[in-house]
Amino acid sequence: MNKRIRFTLIMLAGLSLLAAAALLSLRLGAVSTSFSEMLSGIMEGKGIVFKYRLPRLVIAVLVGINMALSGSVLQSVTRNPLAAPDIVGVSAGGGLAAVIMLLLFPSSPPLLLPVAAFAGAVVAGFIVYAASAGPGGIKPERLALAGVAISAGLHALITFMIVKFALDSAQALVWLKGSLYARSWQHAEMLWPWTVIGALVMLFNFRKINLLLLSEETVSGLGLRVHAVRLLLLGAAVGLAASSVAVAGTIGFVGLVVPHAARLLVGGSDSRLFLPVSALMGALLVTVADLLGRIILPPVEIPAGLITALIGAPYFIYLLVNRKSPAAG
Does residue 35 lie in a domain region? Predict the structure, then answer.
């Protein structure tokens, strides 16, 4: 089948599934809402659906898009199929900053938490970038190794904080697992500009993303300013991931697994095809994970990050077993 026809069919199927998941997400929860009540609440701008479920749905979609696009670009830039925001230090940096705020400054205003988490994620990304820089500029192998090492160190600090403040760490543990509980329109407003900017950067640089999949010598021979382009795309990937971590906590596996699934469906050699599919699949995965977390054991909520891990880990193992190189097109 022609790749473009296949891409169109996959996008239509994905949009249909996302629409169905969105309707169920708005309707179901600890208290079920009829479709008529749901529509009237949205039209009138009041009620449980408009105030709580709709912003939560919007955030789930945006977080899924951000994490999937971030992982796709990181894997392309580093040419490493295991690269993802939660592996190269960004998620761990945001997580550490959030844990520090929750445990050391529990009386601080709630809206300072996402600000601190965003700053922590960006700082971690900068440290990884600085650690991977060398005489020849940024090398993909060094970037990936530096990310793994710094991420491990940050996770160790997070564990130390949790152990030291064990009696007060319940909220921090929930945040670290990635949850959309109690998210509001304020959080959505903080998130969507990053989604738009990051997506536009990738849209206007899709040819350069394709070139970065080639060998270093080939790319340099084509006249591409490799280091400048890599820095721009890394900045966009870090911004997407950091904004998501700041709002929703560390929802793992989305940036790792979704890009592989997208490449498996449409191939990985043309970013015009696999980036939109990645974004759509990421939005669908987080939306479904948040929905399942709310309806499995009501009124208890299972964090969306746990659901994505339960879905993503087995699928990633399947990909590793059945494909020599999941990132290959």
Answer: no
Q: Which pLDDT tens digit goes with each residue over 150-205?
A: 999 999 999 999 888 876 778 788 888 888 988 899 999 999 999 999 999 999 99
In a domain, 159, yes or no: yes
Q: Which domain holds residue 168?
A: 56-322
**Confidence (pTM):** 0.89
DSSP code per residue over 193-220: HHHHHHHHHHHTTHHHHHHHTS-HHHHH
DSSP string covering 97-114: HHHHHHHH-TTS-TTHHH
The average pLDDT across 239-245 equals 93
CB 67 within 8 A of CB 255: yes
Q: What is the pLDDT of residue 100?
A: 92
- For residue 11 the two structure tokens come to 């996008």
Selection from 215, 232, 91 nearest residue 141 by Cα: 215
Residue 24 lies in a domain: no
| 17: amino acid identity, one letter | L
pLDDT level of residue 277 (50, 70, 90 thresholds): very high
* Residue 72's CATH number: 1.10.3470.10
Looking at the domain assignment, is residue 43 inside a domain?
A: no
Number of domains in the chain: 1
